[in-house]
Amino acid sequence: MNPKVSVIIPAYNTETYIGKAIESALKQTLTDIEVIMVDDGSSDKTVEVAKSFTDQRLKVIVNQQNLGAATARNRALRAARGEWIAVLDSDDWYAPERLEKLVSLANKTNADMIADDIFFIKDGATSPWSTLIQEGGELIDKILQIDIVYFVETDIFGKAGLHLGLSKPLFKREFLVKHGIEYDDEIRMGQDFWIDMKCLIKGARFFIEPKPYYFYRSRPGSLVYQSKLPRLNQSCKAAKYFMQQDVVKKNPALMRALSYNLSVFQKNLAYFQVVEPIKQGKLLTAFTEIRKNPAFFYDFLSRLPGIVERRIKYYVMNNKSSFDMYPNQQIKQKNTS
After folding, report:
1. Terminus-to-terminus CA distance in the chain, angstroms?
2. pLDDT tens for residues 223-274?
3. pLDDT digit string, tens, across residues 41-51
4. What is the DSSP letter of 82?
5. Nearest partner of 67 among 91, 40, 33, judged by Cα
6. What residue spans of 110-206 are helical by DSSP H?
7. Where are the alpha helices (DSSP H) in the chain?
8. What's the rounded Cα separation, in Å, for the pair 243 and 249?
9. DSSP H or E run through 61
């Protein structure tokens, strides 16, 4: 008989964290589960730690080379046999009752997707500093069905909002199989938002439970020299793809929301196409990009107060987490090279 839930864990060089992730899945109060960990070409002891578990519900699959989190997740999806698919990043973990609570609520609401609030906890901390809903500024005190327009409008790159693209829903596997839904292999960052979009476009009933059962580990570090260009390029491409779909064209509110998202991606892409070459000392490239983007200086001046504030905190006040960007600009590089 197939298990109730398949927990899929893509992993890449997370030997320090993978044990806690796997243990939190195996120690769920809902015991009718399988756990599929796909190692994505790790060069550390991630596989060794995973294989140290003797629980027969755990299956370890190894990619011989690093292919990206989306490809690793898709390999796990194809191996999964559960009624529900639960995603767990290899440096995060579940509260013991998470799967039991969410499956029960999914059955009551006839959901195709169901997510909970998320605890944000810094690496090494003993307690969370906030949650996804608290940071989003939304008042959600009971289970809420998520409309696709609301989902898009509240998850804008670099802006305050609910950012449900960071949530980790359980997916009804039958729904994914019926509609041929998988992760986009070309998207290495922000994959969760876009697979949620694929489901919602196909009419998935998505609910959010305001209680948090998922622990999202923030591994802080300066993002000053980390490129945002790949994510922004991938996001622009994905937004354009969805805007070409007939179901979107027939929904003016959704088209407006996606168009605004695309404009924000494009504006940030133009900005960082100048900033990143400057940081790398490629001044000729930066000058060429400025000529393409005359509004760069206005954009830079609007960002300047925040830039100065973060650098004062980091270099003067020794606040090493000052470059952690909440939340969808924070690039944890989970399971990617």
Report:
1. 37
2. 334 578 888 999 999 999 999 999 999 999 999 999 999 999 999 999 999 9
3. 999 999 999 99
4. S
5. 40
6. 132-136, 148-153, 173-179, 191-201
7. 18-26, 46-51, 69-79, 98-109, 132-136, 148-153, 173-179, 191-201, 229-243, 246-249, 252-279, 283-292, 296-311
8. 7
9. strand 58-63
How far is the C-alpha of 197 from the C-alpha of 125, rounded, in Å? 33
For residues 124-145, one letter each, b for 16 or more C-beta atoms within 10 angstroms of the residue's C-beta and e for the rest, the string is eeeebeebbbebbebeeeebee
H/E stretch holding 138 reads none
Residue 6: closest CA among 39, 35, 37: 35
- Dihedrals phi, psi of 131, to nearest 5 degrees: -135, 165
Amino acid making up residue 68: G
Residue 18 near residue 72, CB atoms below 8 Å: no
Nearest CA-CA partner of 116 in 107, 105, 126, 108: 105
CB burial of 205-221 (b: ≥16 within 10 Å; e: otherwise) equals bbbbbbebbbbbbbbbe
Whole-angstrom distance, CA of residue 11 vs CA of residue 38: 6
pLDDT band at 220 (very low <50, low <70, confident <90, very high): low
Helix, strand or coil for residue 177?
helix
Backbone angles phi, psi at 158, to 5 degrees: 75, 5
Interatomic CA distance for residues 3 and 6, integer angstroms:
7
Secondary structure of the chain: what % helix, strand, coil (to 5)? 45, 15, 40
Which residues, in sequence order, are CB contacts of 30 under 8 Å at separation 6+?
4, 5, 99, 100, 103
